[in-house]
Amino acid sequence: MRRGFFRYIIAAILIAFGLILVLENIGLLEFNSKNAWGYIYPTFFVLYGLKLMIDRMRKIGGSWTWGSFLLIFGTLLLFDRFEIIEFAFRDVVKLWPLLIIYMGFMFIGNSSKPKVIIHRNGSEFRKDENSSYFTVGNHEYNQPNWKVEPMMIKTLAGDFYYDFSKAYIPEKEIPVTISSLAGDVHMLIPENLDFKVTASVKAGDIDIIGNQVDGINRSLSYQTPNYDSAKRKINFTLKLKAGSIRIDYV
């Protein structure tokens, strides 16, 4: 990690600690080592969220989405500490409607970009200037002899169904990348096809040939034994914010 990041963490901790001491001196809270951390880490969330938003405004990285989320989450935790409202760390699940708000802003933010409609194997994609795909809807690849080609797809929401047992697969390594805010990915793979997959979900479950994980911030990687030497093979990268990823043999 960059050196500046560690400096920021130290600065945030010092600021939070100083703020707690000031509040103790004016009688707004009683300081002890047990409740100090309860004020420090929400303050860090607020400060780091502001940093991400400022960096985004300055166009040097950052993120409106994560910045605003951390700002809101940290602020609610601090309101709880000052007994303005009741909000515990586990109540983060109550913030799920923010996902809908962020999706709405994404629609607005992408509405002005030039887009070209591309038809591929009966499915419709929208391509923007960065060669990404922004769509809402379901994607099914289950027609006889459909051709597997390199894909990079980004969706706001939708379900994906791929039946590779019905596909024509060229003798080469084919990358397939799917990224979605919400949805389900289900793939059927013939047992004689070599593949590897890197899958991750922020909230949901993953099942790859019987290997399973579920919960928050889960990831799973899998590679068939003969992948490196295989002539026909597919390299999957699957990322969901919320949903389910499943790959089965057929």
Keyword list:
250 residues; alpha/beta; two-stranded antiparallel ribbon; 11 strands; elongated
How far the N terminus sits from the C terminus, by CA atoms, comes to 43 Å
What percentage of the residues does DSSP assign to strands (E)?
A: 35-45%
Low-confidence stretches: 109-134
Number of H- or I-type helical stretches: 4
The computed structural class is alpha/beta
The total of beta strands comes to: 11
Order of helices and strands: HHHHEEEEEEEEEEE
- Number of discrete domains: 2
Indicate the multimeric state. Answer: single chain
The pLDDT mean sits at 77
Question: Brief description of this entry?
Answer:
The protein is α/β, with parallel strands linked by helices and 250 residues long.
